[in-house]
Design brief:
Layout lengths: L1 H13 L9 E6 L2 E5 L13 E5 L14 H10 L4 E5 L2 H9 L4 E2 L4 H6 L3 E4 L6 H11 L4 E4 L3 E6 L2 H25 L2
Parallel strand pairs: 6-7
Antiparallel strand pairs: 1-2, 1-4, 2-3, 4-8, 5-6, 7-8
Helix pairs in contact: 2-5, 3-6
Length: 184
């Protein structure tokens, strides 16, 4: 499974959806999850850069797991997700800073069809508040954006979570340029 995580990590970096050392990826395996290590370069993931930790509670390996492990746990407990991709997509982050009503409504037809409204949530990196807010948002949405931070997308497989991540970034990019042109 680490190879699949590595493949998605490379695609995220190559697509400009995240800088190499930011973001994280996880996959659920029963009551455990495989998650990238804290600070690992997503385009250079090897077997030792993915750790297995419990979903039900903390464990010794949490010290080296992503700082967002608490958030992944909350999402897995509150949603049917089997895979999570967290990226720092530049247009999504920008859109979150401009969102005045706590959400982003795509203007492109694909975004409207596949995503619907994308919630913007708040909370500190790796905090209980963020875990609670994201888990609640992702219980009824495929993706959410953390205010000034980045996207979280869920899926039944990593490819689904990746595609949703790309769709959020695409829709935010289209909306940004649409709003810019409209306000000239």
């Amino acid at each position: 499974m680490w190879r699949e995580i590595s493949r998605i990590g490379k695609k995220l970096v190559q697509g400009g959806l995240v800088e190499s050392h930011f973001g994280n990826i996880s996959v659920r395996a029963g009551n455990r999850m495989l998650i990238t290590r804290s600070g690992c370069a997503l385009d250079e993931i090897t077997e030792d850069m993915v750790v297995e930790v419990s979903i039900e509670g903390t464990c010794a390996l949490d010290m080296i797991a992503s700082s967002e492990a608490i958030v992944h746990r909350a999402i897995y407990k509150s949603t049917p997700a089997l895979a999570i991709v967290h990226a720092h997509c530049p247009f999504a982050v920008t859109s979150s800073l401009l969102a005045e009503d706590g959400s982003i409504t795509p203007v492109d037809s694909e975004g409207q069809y596949f995503l619907g409204v994308v919630p913007v949530v708040r909370g500190g990196i790796g905090s209980d508040e963020l875990a609670k807010n994201l888990a609640a948002a992702l219980a009824s949405h495929k993706a959410a954006i953390i205010y000034s931070h980045g996207t979280f997308a869920i899926g039944k497989v990593l490819d689904e979570a990746y595609v949703i991540t790309t769709q959020v970034e695409h829709s935010c990019r289209i909306k940004y340029f649409y709003d810019l042109a409209k306000n000239k």
